[in-house]
Amino acid sequence: MLTGRGGGFLLGIYLLWAYALLIGISALALVGTVLLLWFLLAWLLFAVRVRLAVPRLRLERRLQDENGRVERLWAGLPYQVVLRITNESRASLSFVVAIDRLPLLADAETVDYHASETLAAGESLTLRYEIRPLAAGRLRFDGVKLLVTDYEGFFATPLFLRDGAVFRCLPPLADARGHIPAVKRVNILPLLGQHPHRRPGSAIELLELRDYLPGDPPKRIAWKISARRDRLMTRAVESEVPIRCTLFVDTSDAVRIGPAGRTALCRLIDIAGAVAQANGAARDLTGLCLFDEERVLSSVRPERGRRHLLDLIQILADHADLFPRVNPLPLDQLVFQAYGLAQDLYPELLDRDINAFPWWLPLWSPRPVYLDPLPRPASPSRLARFSTWIERRLRDTPLGWLWTIPRRFSPGAHRRYRQRKQLAALVAVLQNLGPAAAAGMLEDDALLRAVLARFLADHGQPTPLHLFDDEGNYAFASHAKVGVLAKALLQAVQRGKDDELFVLLVDLLENDDLEPLLGAVRVARARHHQVMLICPWPSGIALPVKTNEEAKAKTLASLLAQDFDQKEIVRLTTEWRLHQAYENLQQRLGRAGVSLLCAQKSDTVPLILARMHRLRVVQRGTR
Amino acid sequence: MNASNSPVRLRVWHYQFWCGACLAVVFVAQLSQGIFLTNVLVFLVGLLGIVSRLRWGVLYLMVGVGFCQSVHFFMTERPTLGWRAVSRDLDLHDFLLALGVLCFAVGYQRLQGMWHHAWPSDPRERRGKPKPTFLWMRPRPPVVDHRRRDEHLRSSEIVKIAFFAPLLVLAGVMLFTFVRPARGVDVWLDFPGNLGRFLPPGLGHFVLLFWIFLLFIWLTRHVLDLWRFWTLPPTTARLYVHDQIWNQLRGEQRRIARWQAWRNLQ
């Protein structure tokens, strides 16, 4: 690729050379000839070096902390990334700038991830920088962007060395506040009978004294009491049963919205991870159920132990960085974003020699109008229906040809068609869709949208979302998840042995139909189980507090009446709407005996643990 | 071995000194032709470029040399050789002049990569503290310039220039001399309708050299393309094959895909 500097220099020497030759100035013509020769040789040398060296560049990435190399990361802790690019060819690259492509979950504000070096044969370039994972999830390092140029800056070519290394980042470690103090602090591990049940067992706390029954172990006989009463009495002691806690984590589209590392899902995963760790420390049993609006994604029965805790945390980390699947974004914007990503990651696959686009194609055969979805009528009025009917009839007739005129001659439409074709061919190859898929994607919007969404999600690239559809409805309400959750809760109740705590980490603020869930909750409560609901709360919105609703509504109305900032009005109305939804949810679930908490509060984890502690006390009293 | 391990550390001022030396060669070469006043002007322009980091200093120098040589040609050579004479034979001072300008251009362009940027600046890539710009425009972080620093320089760079530049000039001299029409032969005069009288005398030489360069570029490009296609990575090769299939069956595939898309839409 000729740079601006190279192009200007070439033009200058060419003009000088042509002038000198045509006029017949020998000295000047020789100068021009020599400079032209040098320029051509520089081009040849650059091209040969790039072709020889690039296929033999090796990339090695290592993440390390103060103790050495790590394979698993913890959110919130600093790590050093060491990247080594080695030139194993015999050709040297004059000047190379390496720019690492950071994962979205890594903190990019305070790092310098550039390095430049002359990469001679057998030499290597090392890049070191620090990252701090923002939240749990998978850190995917796509690779390194290499900018290769010659010493003079006449020629340059961008390359991308693909890496694809994925590091699992686990939720942050629970702090001291999350731990329940052990009964016997001198012990490293708390006793297993920390949570005794008031029923006969094999612990050391006395439950009752009863008459001796044949078969009772002689060591249980209370001899002094027996002597006093003149009949054999047996000591019955409490059982040793730990508390079981099952976490239900919502992974539907509703909680996947937001900037990377700051989604509601990340917050829920953090809470679930902290509770699991705190329970593990208290030797309680923790189960997990991850679900979305379609099905239960992962279900783990309550267990305890280090291996089980690690399994839970890894499952949580694997589901922490999911992207919304529903995306009502206009296709043009999606193509624009995907093309930008492809330019960065696959520059060689967008080369015109490899992935060609005939310039005359939009002129000859643009995409017909009848393949566009018809706009819905804005209102159910007769006039709107009639205009839609007219539009349909006109587009399906030969007059529809007139609609394609802008698509034939507009430069913007030409560019969009080219990007669409190149992207379709690229994605068809990357996703192994076969040679005919590109033609299908060139015509079918829905197919292209699905494929591009997958392409962007595979590379961990979030897309801007439209939260509301054309009719003003919230696009991510995910009503079906209530049924999935209710079914999962009932199954957990069926499997339950003792009193358990079910923690539902679910976003239900936008859901009105809660009957299936309330039914399942009633069943759980009837079996003496406890149920808690942790609701994700958007950042930047004030937490719900009990205030006078009428006063709040009046304040909002007065603000709306004034000439107020539009953003402020939107923020206030959103806040008001969410507070209303929260209070409604609190009332409905409160009747069923479910306590509701906000996930945004910093004391969420201690509150859950306190509830577990209360459950132990309650169990002591009830059985 | 990195530059930091090299026994002799090359610095930016070494390149500046190199350019100054080349400028002196240019001055001497032109002085030996009897050019003085304009020669001093060229020297000063070159010096200004070295000192003040001009982005297009090489072009200014070339324009200056062109001006010198033009003045000298029209004042001295043309009256001697005649109106439609083919250019004169090359001399040692021509060799020195070409060598000086070439070495100056190489050194100066490398200095550009150290002073300004080696890789073309990308206005989207900005980093650092936002700086105030013109009037009402909002402050933006400065554009990142990827430039070569002292630690990137290697002493072998200048040695290579010193070794290969005379060879390149020699090759240029040979090419220039071999394709030059013989003295006294004005092929354009045979053009019908006395058209040749209006054509410049060096047109034949120009056309020959032009086609040689063009042929070189065309052949090299094709060889490089062939090489590239032989060594394509598997994914790229598959995309190329898919693209060829799409190109051959474009019409039929388009027709079928449109029917399917239309059916899905209904």
What can you tell me about this protein's structure?
The complex is a heterodimer of chains A (623) and B (266). Chain A contains 19 helices and 18 strands. With 623 residues, chain A is an alpha/beta fold. Chain A has three domains: 51-170, Immunoglobulin-like; 244-321 and 477-619, von Willebrand factor, type A domain (Rossmann fold, 3-Layer(aba) Sandwich); 331-458, no CATH class. A six-stranded mixed beta sheet of chain A has the order 15-14-13-16-17-18, with helices on both faces. Chain A has a five-stranded mixed beta sheet with strand order 3-9-8-5-6. In chain A, a hairpin with a 4-residue loop joins strand 14 (285-291) and strand 15. Chain B is mainly α and 266 residues long. Chain B folds into three domains: 1-120 and 144-178; 187-231; 233-266. Chain B contains eight helices and no strands. The mean pLDDT of chain B is 84. The interface between A and B is large, with 79 and 92 residues.
What is the fold's blueprint, element by element?
The complex is a heterodimer of chains A (623) and B (266).
Chain A: H1 4-23, H2 26-53, E1 57-65, E2 68-69, E3 72-74, E4 79-87, E5 93-100, E6 114-119, E7 124-131, E8 137-149, E9 156-170, E10 196-200, E11 206-211, H3 223-229, E12 233-240, E13 244-250, H4 253-256, H5 264-281, E14 285-291, E15 296-303, H6 306-318, H7 331-345, H8 361-364, H9 382-395, H10 400-403, H11 405-409, H12 411-430, H13 437-443, H14 445-458, H15 480-495, E16 500-505, H16 515-526, E17 530-535, H17 549-561, H18 566-591, E18 595-598, H19 604-622
Parallel strand pairs in A: 3-9, 13-14, 13-16, 16-17, 17-18
Antiparallel strand pairs in A: 1-2, 1-4, 4-7, 5-6, 5-8, 8-9, 10-12, 11-12, 14-15
Chain B: H1 12-32, H2 37-52, H3 57-81, H4 92-115, H5 155-178, H6 203-230, H7 234-248, H8 250-265
